[in-house]
Specification:
This protein is an alpha+beta fold and 154 residues long. The chain has a single domain, classed as Enolase-like, domain 1. Helix content is 37%, strand content 21%. It contains six helices and five strands. The termini are far apart.
């Protein structure tokens, strides 16, 4: 991927200049410009299980997102995988997988959250403008914490 090669070049130059930067492949996002778009960053459920991690998964459908409705692009969902802390709460974001409108753009917020070791609570408590597609990312995080506001699981 060009975006990975570009970052590898920046890290290499920084290291040559003595800045000692690691290349964090854990937070490399990728996307497929299909219809609907698909994007991913971090671990899948299978990988988290194979690593023996305790985790929680939430899904938030775009059909519950106001902006997706106005765009007429309600197909898909955001799946968020977060570590489960010893006290049963949701911890750091381990992976995010998106299928839906503008997934290739939305995945950047997930990659940033992972780069900063953000928790679902950090994301859930971040104000997102309305009506926007990124609200679906916030709602997936809210579901990890106290439950999404704009979607009721049946």
């Amino acid at each position: 991927f060009a975006h990975v090669a570009s970052r590898e070049g920046e890290v290499a130059v920084g290291n040559i200049l003595g800045q000692r930067q690691p290349m964090d492949y854990r937070v490399v996002p990728y996307c497929f410009f299909t219809t609907p778009e698909m994007a991913s960053v971090g671990l899948t459920e299978v990988q988290a299980t194979e690593l023996g991690l305790a985790y929680r998964v939430t899904r938030y459908p775009f059909r519950a997102n106001g902006r997706a409705m106005t765009l007429g692009e309600e197909e898909g969902q955001i799946r968020m995988i977060c570590e489960e802390t010893p006290n049963g709460e949701s911890g750091k974001v381990l992976g995010v997988h998106i299928m839906g409108p503008r997934a290739g753009t939305l995945i950047a917020e997930a990659a940033l959250a992972m780069q900063l070791d953000a928790t679902a609570k950090d994301i859930a408590h971040t104000i997102h403008t309305h009506p926007t597609l990124p609200e679906a990312f916030m709602e997936a995080a809210m579901e990890q914490v106290d439950g999404a506001i704009h979607f009721e699981r049946i």
